[in-house]
Each structure stands twice: as C-alpha cells, then as structure tokens.
Design brief:
Largest sheet: 8 strands, mixed
Number of strands: 8
Order of helices and strands: EEHHHEHHEHEEHEEH
Number of domains: 1
Radius of gyration: 16 Å
Distance between the termini: 40 Å
Length: 210
C-alpha cells in the first residue's frame, strides 16, 4: 500500500512510501529509518523548508569524488519516462520506480540539518539557517540504503554530487544509520553517478556529539 502526503514547502512535494517495502527495510535492520518515514508524514519542521536554503543551492567545501557507474536505475528511469503517465518526467520516473521496482520504497522524502547539529556550520554552509531538501528516491540495495536523485541531464550536472551527499548526511543525522550503510548517487535514463563514501565520512567529522 502506498501512503501519500502532499507537503507545501514553497511548492507542493508529493511524499510517498510503499508500506510493504518499508517493512522489508525494517526487517533488514533499518528500524529507525522506517520510524522516521512514518513520523515525517505527520511531524516536520515546515518552517525550515520555507525560510532556509535548499541543499540543491549549496556547494560544500569538501572535495567530493564521484564516478560514472552502470546501474539498473537508468533502466527504470527510461521505463518511467516512456510510461508518460504524468506531464512531468520527474514524477514519471519516481512513480514508476515506487510502483514497479521492488527495491524503491520512498520518494520526495523531506530531510534537514539544524545548525546546532554540526560544528562550524556557518563556515561549511555559508548560512545560519537550517538546510533542507527532498530526496527523490530511497532504495534498499543488498544491506545498504541508497539515496538517489533523478537528474534529466545527469552528465551536465555541476552540483548534484554536493546535493546527494548532503541528503545522505541528513538521513544519517535524522535516523542514526551508520554512514557505512548509506550510499548515494544521481542518474538519468542513460547515466548513473555514485559518490565516494569517504566524502560523507569527512563531513561526519563535524557532527556534534555532545
């Protein structure tokens, strides 16, 4: 069963989870993630999303390595675009994957970072306001959670690696999932790019633990 929540964060985001797949994710040991996905439908710091900067606008000071990689998400993107059910290819890809890919379990997931959670926050993000975003797709692959962002022209992207890195960091902060079990990337119907997890580990050194 798909649970939906349209959330107005500047414009409307259509947050959806597939409950049976979420239960599978929970059985794999990601209980906190499953809890977060259900909770965030009802409780979110909505003011963060209407006032602060978006992850897509931020370029971190970290040297983030990423590489082109063959991946089945490109196949699903192609099938989603060809389905042409919605006017927007973004929605076509997301809805196709949520409905037909057994490993995709959530879309348009709202996530955030608060300044109090990160050391030298203003130096890193050049703002004193919370940083927010909406993850296009969450996918479970073997024993890892992947954060994927659909980019119609992925090969031309200049900031997408920063964006998905921040999304991954946000999921880590919101759920406590070890960074070793989080992966991320961006893709279109022809190309997929994966981020080097060491980039995320470098960012994690700034997490406040007290």
């Amino acid at each position: 069963m798909i649970l939906s929540k349209s959330i107005k964060h500047g414009w409307y985001y259509h947050y959806k989870i597939e409950t049976e797949k979420v239960e599978t994710v929970q059985r794999k040991g990601f209980t906190n993630l499953a809890t977060f996905l259900h909770t965030v439908r009802k409780e979110r710091p909505d003011t963060y999303f209407t006032d602060g900067p978006r992850s897509s606008q931020i370029k971190t000071p970290f040297n983030i390595s990423y590489e082109k990689t063959p991946h089945k998400v490109c196949y699903f993107a192609r099938m989603g675009v060809e389905s042409n059910y919605y006017d927007d290819n973004h929605m076509n890809v997301q809805m196709f994957m949520l409905g037909y890919d057994t490993q995709t379990f959530a879309m348009e997931v709202p996530v955030w970072i608060e300044p109090k959670e990160v050391k030298k926050y203003e130096d890193i993000f050049n703002t004193d306001k919370p940083l927010t975003g909406h993850i296009d797709l969450l996918r479970v692959e073997k024993d890892n959670i992947w954060i994927w962002d659909y980019k119609p022209k992925a090969h031309n992207e200049k900031k997408a690696h920063h964006q998905v890195l921040l999304y991954t960091f946000m999921i880590h902060l919101r759920t406590g999932i070890p960074l070793q079990r989080l992966k991320c990337g961006y893709f279109d119907d022809k190309n997929a790019y994966a981020i080097n997890p060491e980039s995320i580990t470098n960012l994690n050194k700034y997490v406040k633990t007290e």
